[in-house]
Amino acid sequence: MNAIIYNTKQTLLLAQNLLSTSIRWASKKTGGSTRNAKGSGIKKHRGWKKQDGSWVESGSILVLQRHLRFHPGLNVGMGRNGTLYARIPGRVMVTCEKPDLDWEHTWVQRCYSGRENTTFYKKYFNVMPNKQHQNFVLKDQV
C-alpha cells in the first residue's frame, strides 16, 4: 500500500514538472532569424493613381491593377503586369465605353472568358494632349 502511494506521488510530481516546462508553438523566435516572420506583408495599394482631369507627363502611371478592370484608351499604354501609363503628356480623361476586345489576347481570355456574346461597359483611361498653336508664318510660296 505504501508503495502505491509513493508511486502515485511520484507520478503526480512528474506530471507537474512536465506541465511547468515551456512548450514551443509555431511562432516567431525571439531573435536572429526572419524565416517565419509574422504579418501579411506590405500592401500593394493598387487602383487609380491619377484622377480624371489631372495633368500627367509621359510615362506617368495612371492605374495599377491585377485584373483587367480598366482599359487603355487614346495615348495610353499597358505594361506586362497590367499597369496603365501615359505615352504623351496631357490631361487624363476617363470614359465608360463598350469595349471592342481582342479575344486572342491572354489578358482578355483570362478576365473575360465566357462573356463573348454579352454587352458590358468598361472604364477607359485616355490622355488628351494640349491643343497645338495655330500661328504659322509663310516662309516661301511655291
UniProtKB/TrEMBL annotation:
InterPro entries: Ribosomal_bL27. SUPFAM superfamilies: Ribosomal L27 protein-like. GO terms for molecular function: structural constituent of ribosome. Its main location: mitochondrion. GO terms for cellular component: mitochondrial inner membrane; mitochondrial large ribosomal subunit. It is found in: Mitochondrion. Keywords: Mitochondrion, Ribonucleoprotein, Ribosomal protein, Transit peptide. GO terms for biological process: translation. Pfam families: Ribosomal_L27. Belongs to the bacterial ribosomal protein bL27 family. This is Large ribosomal subunit protein bL27m. It comes from Ignelater luminosus (Cucubano).
